[in-house]
Design a protein that fits this description.
The protein is 47% helix and 22% strand. The structure holds ligand C2E and calcium ion (CA) (2 copies).
């Protein structure tokens, strides 16, 4: 039987609980939430004082009040709360034990001795404290003071304990949102900055050129864009290591910056081994003068790993309005001029007449057209391993072109070429055909690992893509989860409505979808969340430097966390050594791909290689 008083108390507490839940739903920030909760408990619950304190891990084990309501300010002004053993208190006990400390009576309880005189004068009768848990850890307590000595009976404390749990959960949730917002800000910043040099990147340079062109048009000025290519960058990276390559870039960027007019000229890193310098109000004469001074500044060798390394650069120049007014066009033409400079000297102005590069590209496009039929393309693949088990969890299919004269042409070159020449659709169809066929062979050899194919932006807008995939599934008896598609962030950003629809249809066909090169183009997580993708591949540029560069490390860490919050898998690309693998493991990253796990190799050799490799324990033995 519950007596009338007790019933009134339960009703009051239920009302309080409802108001508390409304507060939880409404609060957008932690400070606002804890304050509003104290307020509600005083206003609706009728408690005399309600306060929330966080447990600091300092020497005194301070409980730091972060919100309170109903009290005289002086109550908090002079008090020092602690959760240490030597200074027993109700709140401290809740934090120390992780259990509620219930209905302590002010008149008699030894825990409250220190407060007795003051509290009695103010008419306080009893105190309860509830631990607050966030993310599996006790972060502080919720303490309530009632006038009534008999307050905090069983039903009341049960409901308050529930509210304290919800509050802890609410705090954890808001903290997660705050971390995610911070990560998004970092990623946004990274989208416009090169993490190594701190210089603006290609995307930022593109925007600067657009603004500068508009400005130059208005004032009738000319502009010059210098493309500065750092020689031997790859060789230095390969022989002396990435750290040396990084030092080289940083050193050269500093020298170029010293030649530029600060505040007027804009310097950016627009490629691995390429800087760009935009000169405002500059004609060809001044551009050549600056180029010559940069060549001089680069004359002195750079000391790397105790060796004197040649820091030579070659420079190509394109001008507005003479050579174009679009950022990409100017960057491309400056680069073409740079190629010419490398053959003839240190720097060169763009000249349409000597457009060797254009001829070369045109030649390659013609060759590529033939290559698709002439069997010059082959499929390689590169393993991925699950980090927790160190076992295979799939492979990525990578195209290779064996050009009859030029040897292996990298997909980094010919995929872009194919995209610009409208050849990507036949190329993708070729890869899909090859990948589905190989995947079937793997299955026949009892080698069942998912195989991922890269799709280009244009593929997602190819009206025949979904039908083509459906045909291949039927032809090769492809089962759900056998095939995966990797899509770059930038591909996902073009015409989102069509993309979402196409992805949905592919997903319905049993294809797993993943976001490639994450972090290189700024796509908002809110958008990614709407896509039926199951994994995110963190771009290699962040993974490779995560042990040297705190910003890259922060991106990797927050991306892993975000993936998990969105119930997606995080895959790190470009894992080149064991320390990086171990660091990813510590962050809870799900899978790794990179030279440390294995380099790309012909897809037909893959099952045999995989069975012999150290990551093989999961691979079933052949039944043939
Ligand atoms: P991606 O999709 O980001 O592929 C990963 C690239 O990084 C591959 O270069 C791979 O060989 C390289 N890589 C893998 N692990 C490491 C590592 O530990 N360190 C370093 N430094 N590099 C590593 P690859 O094969 O030259 O491909 C370059 C790009 O070409 C790919 O980048 C992808 O965007 C594109 N691509 C390749 N095959 C296809 C294809 O079939 N279709 C389409 N549309 N694009 C493709
Ligand atoms: Ca890829
Ligand atoms: Ca990638």
């Amino acid at each position: 039987m519950i007596d009338g008083d007790a019933l009134a108390r339960v009703n009051r507490v239920l009302r309080t609980l409802r108001a508390g839940h409304r507060t939880l739903l409404r609060a957008a920030a932690e400070a606002e939430l804890v304050q509003a909760m104290c307020r509600v408990l005083v206003d609706e619950g009728g408690y005399r004082i309600v306060w929330i304190g966080y447990a600091d891990h300092d020497r005194e084990r301070t409980i730091r009040p972060v919100a309170h309501a109903g009290s005289h300010a002086s109550f908090f002004a002079d008090a020092h709360f602690s959760w240490s053993d030597d200074r027993p208190s109700v709140s401290g006990e809740a934090i120390r034990t992780g259990k509620p400390s219930i209905g302590r009576q002010l008149q008699s309880d030894p825990l409250l001795a220190r407060w007795r005189t003051d509290a009695l004068r103010r008419g306080y009768g009893s105190v309860s404290a509830f631990p607050l848990r966030a993310g599996g850890e006790i972060i502080g307590c919720l303490t309530l003071v009632a006038a009534d000595e008999a307050a905090f009976d069983e039903p009341e404390t049960a409901l308050l304990a529930e509210l304290a749990d919800d509050l802890g959960y609410g705090i954890a949730h808001l903290r997660m949102l705050a971390r995610h917002a911070e990560a998004e800000r970092t990623i946004e910043r990274m989208a416009y900055h090169d993490p190594l040099t701190g210089l603006p990147n290609r995307a930022a340079m593109r925007e600067r050129i657009t603004t500068a062109v508009a400005d130059a048009r208005e004032h009738g000025h000319a502009l010059a864009l210098l493309s500065i290519h750092i020689g031997h960058f790859d060789e230095i990276g390969d022989t002396l290591g990435h750290a040396a390559g990084d030092r080289l870039i940083t050193d050269i960027a500093e020298r170029v910056a010293a030649v530029a007019r600060s505040g007027q000229d804009a310097l950016a890193r627009i490629g691995e081994d390429e800087l760009a310098l935009l000169l405002h109000d500059a004609d060809s004469h001044r551009a050549c003068d600056v180029a010559a001074r940069i060549v001089d500044a680069l004359y002195r060798p750079v000391e790397l790993a105790g060796m004197q390394v040649d820091a030579r650069g070659v420079i190509g120049i394109a001008l507005f309005p003479g050579h174009g007014d679009e950022p990409d066009e100017l960057m491309r033409r400056a680069k073409v001029a740079m190629y010419r400079a490398s053959a003839h000297g240190h720097f060169a102005l763009y000249s349409g007449l000597h457009d060797d590069e254009r001829r070369r590209r045109l030649g390659l496009i013609g060759d590529l057209r033939r290559a698709i039929d002439a069997d010059e393309l082959t499929l390689y693949c590169q393993p991925k391993v699950a980090i927790d088990t160190s076992r295979f969890c799939g492979a990525e299919a990578l195209m290779r072109w064996k050009h009859p004269e030029q040897g292996m042409v990298s997909p980094a070159v010919f995929v872009e070429l194919a995209e610009s020449a409208g050849l990507i659709t036949p190329l993708t169809h070729w890869v899909l055909e090859a990948a589905f066929r190989e995947r079937h062979r793997w299955h026949a050899a009892s080698f069942d690992q998912p195989l991922a194919v890269n799709l280009s932006a244009r593929d997602l807008h190819d009206p025949r893509l979904v039908d083509r995939v459906r045909d291949l599934i039927a032809t090769w008896g492809t089962q759900d989860g056998w095939m995966e598609f990797e899509l770059t962030e930038s591909a996902l950003m073009v015409d989102p409505e069509t993309v979402i629809e196409t992805l949905g249809r592919l997903r319905d066909l049993g294809i797993e979808l993943m976001v490639d090169d994450y972090g290189t183009g700024y796509s908002s997580l809110r958008y990614l969340q709407q896509l039926p993708v199951s994994s995110i591949k963190i771009d290699q540029s962040f993974v490779r430097r995560m042990l040297d560069d705190p910003e890259s490390a922060a991106i990797v860490r927050s991306t892993v966390e975000l993936c998990h919050a969105l119930h997606m898998r995080a895959i790190a690309e470009g894992v080149e050594n064991e320390p990086v693998f171990d660091a990813l493991s510590a962050l809870g990253c799900d899978a790794a791909q990179g030279y440390y796990v294995g380099k790309p190799l012909p897809v037909t050799d893959f099952p045999e290689w995989a069975r012999a490799s150290r990551w093989a324990s999961v691979v079933q033995t052949s039944v043939t």
